[in-house]
Amino acid sequence: MKNKHKILIRVSLFSIITVLMFCFLNIFFQPVWTTWNNYNTTYGFYEEPENTIETAFFGASVVISGISPTHLYEKYGICAYNFATEQQPMLATYYWLEEVYRLHSETLKTVVLDVSELRDDSSEAFYHKALDAMRFSDVKFRAIQDYKGGDLLDTLSYLLPLNSYHDRWSELEKTDFEKFTYDANSGTRGYYSDKRTYSEIAAQSNITLLNPVLDETAKEGKLLKSSLKYLDKMVTFCNEKNIKLVLIKTVSGNWSSSFHNAVAKVAEEYGLEFLDFNFDPLYDAYGYIHPYDSIDGKHLNWFGATKFTGWLGQYLVDHCGATDVRNNEKYAFMEEELREYKLTVGQSVQLHTVESVEEYMKLALSGNNTVFITVCDEASTGFTDELRTYLSDIGMHKLSRIGYRNGYIGIVSNEGVIYEMLKTKGDKEPLKYTGKLADGVKFTLKSGGHDQGRMASCLIDGEQWAYNKRGLNIAVYNNDAGKVVHRAVFDTYTSLTRECYSIELSEAILAAGEDVTYDEDSIEANILAYQKKVEKKRVG
Fold first, then answer.
1. Same domain? 250 vs 120
2. Phi/psi at 166 (5° precision)
3. Which end of the chain is more exposed for a tag (fewer CB within 10 A), N or C?
4. Which residues pair with 436 in a beta bridge?
């Protein structure tokens, strides 16, 4: 009898261990997909209190980078969430709508859908990116069944990540080991911030010129029947649940009058509002400037997203009855998310728009940051006595004494200087320093002045953060967020300042019009030149 009990206990323990190991491997082998915020979006959603979300945004990457729900809350008090994923298939969009309603049926009243994916088919990878992180429920089961054509074995196979990703041994990264303790950045609420501008990536002459004049006679573009099927299901679902559905199209260089006309016809058939910001009169509705408010001509950057989100917020208030929840105790969690948003995204934007070295350093050292500085080539010629005095006052004595073609490495926080090293021009070997931050993250810094290789490197947790350009290369690591929140380069061989684009700058230029003369090739001049080309298209 005792032997039977022992055998039963052993079998039970073995079964439990096997099940736990199977569950562990299923989670372990599933990719994290932090690019375009997939991981934060889906996992962050399930941390939200139930019955709080009032507005839900759906679509592809143009929505991920184009709409900031936290900015909506800060400006209008609206509790919204961005559920967009990369090339989100319309099938996934529909079932995510069901999933959102499942947990927020008492509050959800507005759904905003970008129509980009009505014309495109998505590969299986994007179905995985959209559906893998959805928690198991009747909604997810039906979504997979629908995608797999109703085959039960295929559905069950798809539901088990180990089956899809068991061969990922060679692709495993640090993030795969961190996912069990990963704390989703709920402050972004599905938004992915990128401050790069189209002008930084492409030469002005190569920037796509948008034509905001709609050709109403253009032949209707072809929309996918499979996508239209799920739009129909969304319309039916929203009508049944008394939810307002609004169709939008963000500004994008790969959109056309043909697709606009096709979607406009569908919207009219359903009695839906369709807001297309690629054409007049909405093209200019929020002060959009294509070369500077876009990352790549297709996706909005932070500047464009902030402008666009602000316009949408007013629309939601005026036409969708959006609620201001800022004084409602039930939504106190939103204040913490706003604080997190400002800590990561907000601080990064402030640093991005600071023009001088001194102001940049003051802002970086005003928070709980560690600042890394490496010099490339020659950095001292533009230094003034005022800057040297400031650097000496904050304890960066060696940087304050930097000379012609010297190499330099420095680390400083708001508590003082952590490390400094200066190398004179005669030494041929570059500077190098390796260490660890308080949270255990490793870093390696290298600096080569003119005679030491003309190079700057700042590896933090294995990622390169130095621009490796002449002057001061700076990286700002936020100790609370545990990541680099900004990096910059100041060509202090020529100047202590740099040109920076900002929303305030763009508003001032648009308000001033063509009567003001700007320096040739300046940001202001480039903006006016582009706007003139757009106007010429309108007239022509």
1. yes
2. -65, -20
3. N
4. 442
Tokens of residue 394, six digits? 């904050």
Query: What residues make up the domain containing 25?
Result: 1-30
Q: How many domains is the chain built from?
A: 4
Nearest 5°: phi and psi at 111? -125, 125
Question: How long a stretch of residues is the chain?
Answer: 540
Cα torsion 60, 62, 67, 68 to 10°: value is 80
Tokens coding 407: 């190499």
Q: Is the pLDDT of residue 139 over 80?
A: yes
Angle (nearest 5°) at CA 403 between 402 and 409: 40
Report pLDDT for 537.
Answer: 87
Range 101-124 average pLDDT: 94
Q: Which amino acid is at 330?
A: K
pLDDT at residue 357 is higher than 80: yes
251 inside domain: yes
- Of the candidates 265, 331, 312, 252, the one whose C-alpha atom is nearest the C-alpha of residue 62 is 252
Per-residue model confidence (pLDDT) at position 6: 60
Please state the pTM of the whole predicted model. 0.87
Alpha-carbon separation of residue 252 from 279, 335, 492 (angstroms): 11, 33, 36
Beta-carbon contacts of 57 under 8 Å, excluding residues fewer than 6 positions away, are: 63, 67, 69, 80, 81, 82, 83, 84, 112, 113, 114, 190
Task: Name residue 308's amino acid.
Answer: F
Rounded Cα distance, 518 and 98, in Å: 52
Question: What is the side-by-side order of every strand in the sheet holding 110-114?
Answer: 80-82, 55-58, 110-114, 244-249, 273-276
Residue 512 CA to residue 525 CA, distance in Å, equals: 12
Cα–Cα distance list, 251 to 58, 185, 197, 512 (Å): 16, 27, 14, 24
| Structure confidence at residue 174 (pLDDT) | 56
What six digits make up the tokens of 350?
């402030």
What mean pLDDT is predicted for residues 79-96?
A: 96
Q: Is residue 348 part of a domain?
A: no
44: pLDDT strictly greater than 50: yes
Q: What is the pLDDT of residue 80?
A: 98
DSSP 3-state of 308: helix
Same domain, 305 and 408: no
* Residue keyed to tokens 């307002």: 244
- Report pLDDT for 378: 95
Q: How many CB atoms lie within 10 A of CB 502?
A: 16
Sign of the Cα pseudo-torsion (534, 537, 538, 539, in order): positive
Spatial distance between the Cα atoms of 361 and 351, rounded to a whole number of angstroms: 9
21 falls within a domain:
yes
- Rounded CA gap, 184 and 47, in Å? 9
CA–CA separation, 310 and 29 (whole Å): 39
